């Protein structure tokens, strides 16, 4: 099952966008219950968009092409006792390497991570480039991920 959404823009922006609070909690001094962070880059001659939805106790990351917004792959990784990281594919092909990326993010951030990787699954070099770009973004904007 693949969910696709029409694109609004064909241009790839390399600018980072600010987190958008979606719902405020009772007090303005508290952090938003949901926030979204988007960024794009050209990786391996391909425009790649990242959308991060920071939830209260987990994170949803969508990675794909801005011209073809699909949700054709979905993984969940979380820490289970005794401190092991496990992942499960919720949607998509069983033989894809994106679960490795989901586990890496879960380990790095220490929270459950839902990840939808909608780029060519058979390109391991692109997967590693995407991983490096995502880690760079986490280092520069940790508050958008934790």
Structure description:
With 146 residues, this protein is of the alpha+beta class. It has one domain: Ribosomal Protein S5, domain 2 (2-Layer Sandwich), CATH 3.30.230.100. The chain has two helices and nine strands. It has helices spanning 98-109, 124-140, and strands at 3-5, 20-23, 34-43, 46-54, 59-64, 69-71, 74-80, 84-91, 113-118. Strands 2-3-4-5-9-7-8 form a seven-stranded mixed sheet. It has a two-stranded antiparallel ribbon with strand order 1-6. Residues 6-13 have low confidence and may be disordered.
The tally of beta strands, per DSSP, is 9
Q: Provide the number of structural domains.
A: 1
Structural class: alpha+beta
CATH top level class name: Alpha Beta
Report on the biggest sheet.
7 strands, mixed
What is the count of DSSP helices, taking H or I runs of 4+ residues?
A: 2
What overall geometry do the principal axes of the alpha carbons give?
globular
Radius of gyration: 15 Å
Oligomer: single chain
The SSE order reads EEEEEEEEHEH
Mean pLDDT rating: 82
Strand content: 35-45%
Distance between the termini: 30 Å
What ranges have pLDDT less than 50 throughout 5 or more consecutive residues? 6-13
**Helix amount:** 10-25%
Strand order of the largest sheet: 2-3-4-5-9-7-8
CATH topology: Ribosomal Protein S5, domain 2
> Architecture, CATH level 2?
2-Layer Sandwich
Which helices and strands, and how do they pair?
Blueprint: E1 3-5, E2 20-23, E3 34-43, E4 46-54, E5 59-64, E6 69-71, E7 74-80, E8 84-91, H1 98-109, E9 113-118, H2 124-140
Parallel strand pairs: 5-9
Antiparallel strand pairs: 1-6, 2-3, 3-4, 4-5, 7-8, 7-9
Protein name: Proteasome assembly chaperone 4
Pfam families: PAC4
InterPro entries: PAC4
